[in-house]
Amino acid sequence: MTRPRVRCGGFTLLEILLALSVLSVILLLLLSSFTGAARVRETLSSRAREFRQIRLVLDRIGTDIMCAFAVSVREESALSLREDQLSGMPAATLTFTAFQLPDGDSGHPPAEIVKIRYFPRIGADGVTLELHREQSDLPFVGNKIPLRESLVADRLRGFGVEVFDGTTWVKEWPAGGGSKTSLPKKAAVTLVGERGETYRREVPIHLAGQEGNVTWSGRRRSGRE
Prior knowledge:
Helices cover 24% and strands 30% of the residues. The protein has 225 residues and is an alpha+beta fold.
């Protein structure tokens, strides 16, 4: 009499291969979701850094411009604006004299009056712009104080400035036929981000029209005051 075959515990080769295939698909889906989440997080972090940089730069330029002044008897105090392009990107150069609170930077005397210049350069990657700020302390006094230059923004696609003369917005200053030391009523700064988004801020120039009445001193402030 023949006994029936008893099947031993375990899985066939086909079952093992099928289970491995299903497990591989699940792992692939999980890896794709993790990779996608990492890319999204990196993109959001990059955009947050860009927005923060744009906001800080617009705030700093706006604060500087609002403190701009000019004196009718000193042409070197005049505001000047030149529109240009670098590698096809808007690249304005803005120069003006401004009042500021003395910063007490070591190695530099405290100064209430500074000459500020904002200008772009081609960035290290060769395709975007860097925005630089140059500051000259006590510009109306003969001195050997070195210029201070700092990088305020990078990876830009454009830097533009317009000024309002009371009737129209222009991209060059001084305007033709006007006084060299006259100030525009307002200024608008435009930054183009790395992804092409445009950010614009308009700021008033409070001392416009007061070029003959500005009281200023070119002397350095005493440390005992």
